[in-house]
Specification:
The complex is a heterodimer of chains A (167) and B (103). Chain A is an all-alpha fold and 167 residues long. Chain A has helices at residues 2-26, 30-50, 54-78, 94-114, 127-135, 140-162. Chain A starts with a helix and ends in a 5-residue tail after the last helix. Chain B has a single domain, classed as Orthogonal Bundle (Helix Hairpins), CATH 1.10.287.3510. Chain B has 3 helices and no strands. Classes of the chains: A mainly alpha (167), B mainly alpha (103).
Chain lengths: 167, 103
């Protein structure tokens, strides 16, 4: 019973992720795309929690469906050209892109299905504690590099948006 | 039937394909950024699924996802700032019209 419920939850979340992802690409209105992208990020966060990664689920909710969604909506508003809803047109490579993407999905699907997977698994009941211990001991160098990257990205975004010579 | 590694990998591959289609077939820079975000999320699902379903002994996969999310968020901030800058200079963010390096 419990296993059946878990399977059902996975399929519902997977359907939500794929449907909202398709909506992001197919929608004719850029604001609708941004909203569906937020829904997709929330579904991915639920999938992380289903995979026993509860800290990552919380991070996904806060950073992606919070921060990134707001940034993208601001980007949509700041770059609107004419009155009316901001459009989301395809370019002339629409058909060849479909072919390429279907080819990619087929190759990836074949590889995934035909590769034998090792059984087993690892579940941590206290992901925050485990992640913090690893981040500040073994992986301290990537942690510091990520901190520097964030600082550089912040300064770069401010300087790019301000423009040279202004204010 | 139990959900295993293969199901998560297939889901991530499909999400990656959807994001790739968005990147390849859209005109608007912001729409292309959204496609890149979908692809990054697919990769994160892969990291977490491998950490959950393969015989490992710590949370390295989840820690890599933390760093991947950090890089992804920095990328969005820079991308939106660039789109705003390009729009300010040229009044368009259609990537097919942006073929001139000298502003």
């Amino acid at each position: 019973m419990n296993e059946m419920l878990s399977t059902l939850v996975f399929y519902v979340v997977a359907m939500a992720i794929l449907a909202t992802g398709m909506g992001v690409v197919m929608s004719n209105n850029l604001v609708h795309s941004a909203l569906l992208m937020t829904a997709c990020f929330i579904s991915v966060g639920i999938l992380f929690i289903w995979l026993n990664a509860d800290f990552l689920g919380a991070m996904e909710f806060m950073l992606y469906s919070g921060g990134v969604a707001i940034l993208v909506v601001m980007g949509v508003m700041l770059t609107k050209r004419q009155d009316g809803p901001p459009g989301n047109p395809f370019n002339h490579r629409k058909i060849s892109a479909i072919g390429l993407v279907v080819l990619f999905a087929l190759v990836m699907g074949t590889v995934i299905v035909s590769t034998p997977v090792s059984s087993g698994g690892y579940i941590s009941l206290d992901t925050v504690d485990a992640l913090a211990g690893m981040m500040l001991n073994t992986y301290i160098l990537p942690f510091e590099i990520a901190a520097t990257l964030l600082l550089a990205a912040l300064l770069g975004a401010i300087i790019l948006a301000k423009g040279d010579g202004e204010a | 039937m139990t959900i295993g590694l293969n199901h998560c990998l297939l889901l991530a591959a499909m999400l990656f394909a959807i994001g790739l289609y968005g990147v390849l077939s859209k005109r608007n820079i912001i729409a292309i950024l959204m496609g890149v975000e979908l692809m990054l999320n697919a990769v994160n699902i892969n990291f977490v699924a491998f950490n959950r379903f393969t015989p490992v002994s710590d949370l390295t996969g989840q820690l890599m996802t933390v760093f991947a999310i950090t890089v992804g968020v920095a990328e969005v901030a820079i991308g939106v700032a660039l789109a705003y800058r390009i729009y300010n200079d040229r009044q368009t963010i259609n990537v097919d019209e942006l073929d001139n390096m000298k502003g």
